[in-house]
From TrEMBL:
Name under which the protein is recorded: Plant bHLH transcription factor ACT-like domain-containing protein
Domain Plant bHLH transcription factor ACT-like: 71-128
Keyword Nucleotidyltransferase annotated: no
A GO term for molecular function: DNA-binding transcription factor activity
Protein's organism: Zizania palustris (Northern wild rice)
Family matches, as InterPro entries: bHLH-TF_ACT-like_plant, TF_AMS/ICE1/BHLH6-like
Highest taxon of the lineage: Eukaryota
Keywords: Nucleus
Classification of source organism: Eukaryota, Viridiplantae, Streptophyta, Embryophyta, Tracheophyta
One of the record's GO cellular component terms: nucleus
Subcellular location: Nucleus
One Pfam family recorded for the sequence: bHLH-TF_ACT-like_plant
Length: 141
């Protein structure tokens, strides 16, 4: 019986995380999953539109040849650790990453960045706050 309760609590927590990531205001499981499906469909459409723009614009051909940063995320007991590494520095990369943290509602407690010949960022964050229901998540798994 305890195992069933743990599974139910784990499922509830994961649904709430999904709800947060998709900016859903739904309360029941079916609506949360439906909103997530719609969110994914919208993202796919945005990707397709961006791909069309990239193909149509010859000046952007060098962008696709740029190496992507290596990102590693580690879930801590009460927060997260994110490491980002890239062989070269790109103007605006640090600010873009920090804006993404803000959009995701991640609170960065400590960050170390180096932008000399290569780009390195190590960010330690605290608890993730679900702004819709004021619920605090201790763990993202």
């Amino acid at each position: 019986m305890v195992s069933r309760e743990k599974k139910r609590a784990s499922l509830h927590e994961k649904l709430q995380i999904l709800r947060t990531l998709t900016h859903s205001h739904a309360v029941n499981k079916l609506s949360i999953i439906s909103d997530a499906s719609t969110y994914i469909k919208d993202l796919k459409q945005k990707i397709a539109a961006l791909n069309k723009l990239e193909i149509a614009s010859p000046q952007n051909t060098n962008i696709s040849e740029e190496p992507l940063p290596v990102v590693r995320v580690q879930v801590l007991e009460k927060g997260f650790l994110i490491n980002v590494f890239m062989d070269k520095t790109i103007p605006g990369l640090l600010s873009s990453i920090l804006e993404a943290f803000d959009e995701l509602g991640l609170t960065v407690i400590e960050a170390r960045a180096s932008c000399s010949s290569s780009f390195r960022l190590q960010a330690v964050g605290g608890e993730v706050i679900n702004m819709h229901s004021s619920t605090y998540f201790q763990n993202l798994t």
